[in-house]
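Quick note —
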Amino acid sequence: MTNANAGYVWTGTIQIQKQVNNFYASIAYTRQVAKDAAVNGSTASTMWGSRPTTGNSNEFALGYSNNYLPHRIIGTINYRKEYAKILATSIGILYEASPNTAYNLSYVYNGDLNNDGFNNDLIYIPKDASDIKLVNAAAVGGVADTRTQAELWDQLNTFISQNKYLSKHRGQFAERQALVLPWVHRVDLNFTQDVKIKVKNTTNTLRFTADIYNFTNLLSKNWGVGKIPTTMSPLTFVKLDTDGKTPVFSFPYLDGVNQIPYTNSFKTDPASYSRYQIQLGIRYIFN
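Predicted structure written out below.
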């Protein structure tokens, strides 16, 4: 094990904010790039085996860091009004726009192409049908894959063409952690009601709160919803050809039983992040 004189990170933020009496507003944009030669992990084996590679896993190769967020927009609006001597109402809005998660992904083969014991080999993105050798995928549920060579390439080519990253990098190996998930726009809403309570010579506060996380999804089921990949291993390494050096791949179906091919790169993220949540609270604050 040796040190590598490689890797860097830079982050820049532009922010505008304004306070006027009881009203506060802020908007900020952050741009980040982060690259390293290794990935984080608890053991050397984990770090070595989980780092996607295009060949020799022992070589230092600069790639995007696992946890970086290339773009993020944060906006806030807060308004507080005191009235009737004992009451105060606050309304807060938080807007966030960014890729779905801060963990970016790598397109790798299903299979161990370089025979290092790990399925961590970055795919080569073919330019045309002559740039890859395809065979039928294994049968699923007793249903055989009977696609012709032309059908296999047409379906793979369609999948590549609709993918912004893959279509842009035809004729190249996919980069480590280079797939940035689609942007998500969401709004969180807070409502706070304070009631002042006089206890002898002390004024305490009874506070009621209502938070709606992902308020955008409450307004529409199609808003504030994240996307995740349908697959990060579209190609399966099958074998080496008869020449002993040319790899042969299959392009499995999304649904092998019903013979439905992959046509879209992303699907709806079922995680709670994509759903609205309502939280009610009550708090007694001693002065």
